[in-house]
Design brief:
- It is built from four helices and four strands; from the N terminus they run αβαβαββα.
- By secondary structure, the chain is of the alpha+beta class.
- The protein has two domains: 36 residues; 107 residues, 3-Layer(aba) Sandwich (Glutaredoxin), CATH 3.40.30.10.
- A four-stranded mixed β-sheet has the order 2-1-3-4.
- It is elongated and about 75 Å long.
- It starts with 5 loop residues before the first helix and ends with a helix.
- Keywords: Membrane, Transmembrane, Transmembrane helix.
- It comes from Nocardioides jiangsuensis.
- This is Thioredoxin family protein.
- Pfam families: Thioredoxin.
């Protein structure tokens, strides 16, 4: 019995293929997430808003009482045990210190679930760039890079 029973080699072969397929799929998903993580792209339609009515701040009706920036506001949704949220906090605070008229506001997603649902925030950290009126201009899910935040602000504030 040098090769063992035929059914055993067939099971091992099938199991190896399942493992290979699982590894390929996991790697593809990881590459996809790495490519999209922290990138600013588009906006999200605010639930309950009519297209022509989106002239008020996304924070209207919420209990967040923070003054918006003269030019823009970096609105960050975080959670307590989110490691990328801490890095994002540092990056956005640095950008707000460097760019005049820009402020950084951090919101605890766990304590503002109604706002999270209304704005369609699916994960933390999520950063919304708001114009001076508080309207969403663009957003990024995941930890953005400082140079990308600066480039996005330069593009959106021009």
């Amino acid at each position: 019995m040098p090769g063992g029973p035929a059914w055993l080699s067939a099971d091992v072969s099938q199991g190896a293929w399942v493992l290979v397929v699982a590894l390929v799929l996991a790697t593809a998903f990881g590459v996809y997430r790495a490519a999209r993580d922290g990138r600013f792209r588009g906006t999200h339609r605010v639930k309950g808003a009519v297209e022509e009515e989106v002239v008020e701040s996304v924070l209207a009706g919420s209990d967040i009482d923070h003054e918006l920036g003269e030019r823009a506001t970096l609105l960050q949704f975080s959670s307590a045990f989110c490691a990328p949220c801490r890095a994002t906090r540092r990056i956005l605070a640095d950008v707000a210190d460097v760019v005049p008229g820009v402020v950084h506001v951090e919101v605890d997603a766990e304590h503002h679930l109604e706002l999270v649902r209304r704005l369609g925030v699916a994960r933390t950290p999520t950063t919304l760039v708001l114009d001076r009126h508080g309207r969403e201009v663009t957003r990024a899910s995941g930890a953005p890079k400082k140079d990308e935040v600066l480039a996005t602000l330069a593009r959106e504030l021009a």
